[in-house]
Amino acid sequence: MKIDLTGRRALVAGGSRGIGLAIAHSFAAAGADVSICARQAASLESASASLKTLGHRVSSRSCDLSRAEDIGAWVEASAQALGGIDILVNCASAFGRTDDEAGWAASVQVDLMAPVRACYAALPYLERQGGSIIHISSTAGLGASVRTPPYGAVKAALMEYTQTQALALAGKHIRVNCIAPGSIYFEGGVWDNARQKNPALYERILKGIPSGRYGTPEEVAQVATFLVSDQASWVTGQTIAVCGGQSL
After folding, report:
1. What stretches of the chain show up as alpha helix (H) in DSSP?
2. Do 162 and 182 form a contact (C-beta atoms < 8 A)?
């Protein structure tokens, strides 16, 4: 099955590394123009340069996704640079782990309110011709998350929000879906850090993955690319776990 996104204009929040960058790469490889945002200028510049090698329009902007004004500015600048918006992917996470004010505040602002705010800003453009929204949640939101209470609870909320949005926006030809990755390994990511600093945790999680390995960002990106394509035209309101059986 060949997926063609030629002419589509895709925004990926948190697109400078890991899952977000893999999604942006997959979209661009399928023909889409892409815009990414992130806080770190160095990683953003590197990601933008790599995306430009694929030969399509690329826009990037530094953005603190905990700030509503930054999100609105990024979405507006992206729409102007790309000539509109067909796809929005909300991928960034603050990885709020601690069950305290700081942990909850980080998770709520970045993992939940950033997607809400990005949707607010992008909807006037999506409503013109229809399109697709994808929220990146986590298998931590599918059940109890004792090690990371705020992260799990907010990711669960994002799954519910996906269903609500999908129903509300179906009449406007906007599809909304969610991906719940399991433990995904990439250089500089959460599990790379665990491997180096907390090998006991790294090995314990690895042993709990039925497929016997950590996942890759590209495996999540492939599902995202399908979901925004015409091949998924009758799919909306769904959360798809990409976890090698980990959620089982």
Report:
1. 18-29, 41-52, 68-82, 101-106, 114-129, 149-169, 190-197, 199-207, 217-228
2. no
pLDDT in tens, 77-94: 999 999 999 999 999 999
Does residue 96 have a pLDDT over 90? no
Give the integer Cα–Cα distance in Å for 248 and 245.
Answer: 5
Q: What is the pTM of this model?
A: 0.96
Give the whole-angstrom CA distance, residue 165 versus residue 177: 9
Q: Taking the mean position of all CA atoms in its chain, how far away is CA 218?
A: 12
Angle formed at CA 181 by CA 238 and CA 165, multiple of 5 degrees:
30
Query: Is residue 151 annotated as part of the catalytic site, yes or no?
Result: yes
Compute the distance between CA of residue 50 and CA of residue 6 in angstroms, rounded to an integer. Answer: 18
Mean pLDDT of the chain: 96
Q: Look at residue 40 in the predicted model and tell me its pLDDT.
A: 86
Q: Select from 111, 142, 132 the least CA-distant residue to 233.
A: 132
* Catalytic residue (choose from 125, 151, 161, 214): 151
Mean predicted confidence (pLDDT) in 185-198? 93
Task: Give the separation between CA 39 and CA 213, rounded to whole angstroms.
Answer: 30
